[in-house]
Amino acid sequence: MSHDTLTPTSVFLIAGLGNPGPRYDGTRHNVGFRVVDRLAQRFSIPMQERKFPAHWGEGRIGGRKVVLVKPMTYMNRSGEAVGPILRYYRLPPEALLVVHDDLDLPLGRIRIARRGGTGGHRGVASIIQTLGGGEFARLKLGIGRPRYGESVEAFVLDGFYSDELEAAEEMVDRAAAAALAVLADGLEAAMNRFNQRRKSTDQQADQPGD
């Protein structure tokens, strides 16, 4: 399998974004945390909180050294955790995959991107500011838009609607699989596989609420 679309470094860092504390467990803004938790559990990677303002750990996935990171700085200061860990491992931004929620994707859809701007996401903006640019890959998880006139801030900091819970869980599983595909096959192959529109999920996500 070719890794020519990834940095040739021997270590890869996956940072899932979210807010710390039980108040934010299960919220839309914390789906990045859930993906990292899924990977840590599956591959028995121990997570710790020391040296950096993050819940993080290192292990091996598919024969490759991987560092999993959940910033404990709150979303809009995510770069304060991700930047120091990248520097500690002497990694370039190209060795980073940031996993985060995306309002512009329907619930259930995921999208991998090589690089880009903030997309209006404060956690991504903080990482770009810290690293001095957006030359890192992103794994975006669709959370859709408010149904009932909620503000965007209230929407992302709330849990999924009851009829969205199953789709959200499936999306987290699919995103974890996408992260593994990036590691195993490279960005290009993972993008070709996971960026395809899933009609059944999208049609369901586009249905109005009761």
TrEMBL record:
Record GO terms (molecular function): peptidyl-tRNA hydrolase activity; tRNA binding
Site residues, Stabilizes the basic form of H active site to accept a proton: 101
Keywords: Cytoplasm, Hydrolase, RNA-binding, tRNA-binding
The reaction(s) this protein catalyses: an N-acyl-L-alpha-aminoacyl-tRNA + H2O = an N-acyl-L-amino acid + a tRNA + H(+)
EC number: 3.1.1.29
HAMAP family hit by this protein: Pept_tRNA_hydro_bact
Designated name of the protein: Peptidyl-tRNA hydrolase
